[in-house]
Amino acid sequence: MTRLADRLLEMVAPHTVARATDCAYQCCYANYWRYCCYYPNGTSHCDGCITNSSSQRSC
């Protein structure tokens, strides 16, 4: 999943933007998650919080 997200980001992001080095899901609040990517230059990008319909992941 992370590789796919990185590839999609590379397609939309300008080529001058450094490749994300760390992308993962983070807990927003009880059973809500968001996908965040962190870049070597100190910037980050996170999607909006979404509810978790799976019982495999809880926070």
Molecular structure report:
It is a single chain. The chain is α+β, with helices and mostly antiparallel strands and 59 residues long. It is 19% helix and 34% strand. The chain contains 1 helix and 4 strands; from the N terminus they run H-E-E-E-E. It is elongated, with a radius of gyration of 13 Å. The model has no long low-confidence stretch (mean pLDDT 75).
- Biggest sheet record: 4 strands, antiparallel
Radius of gyration: 13 Å
User: H/E element string?
Assistant: HEEEE
In one word, what is the shape?
elongated
Overall number of strands: 4
Helix content: 10-25%
Average pLDDT across residues? 75
Question: Which regions contain 5 or more consecutive residues with pLDDT less than 50?
Answer: none
Estimate what percentage of residues fall within beta strands.
25-35%
- What is the count of DSSP helices, taking H or I runs of 4+ residues? 1
* Helix/strand class: alpha+beta
Report the end-to-end length measured between terminal Cα atoms: 20 Å
Q: What are the SSEs and their pairings?
A:
Layout: H1 2-12, E1 22-29, E2 32-38, E3 44-46, E4 50-51
Antiparallel strand pairs: 1-2, 2-3, 2-4
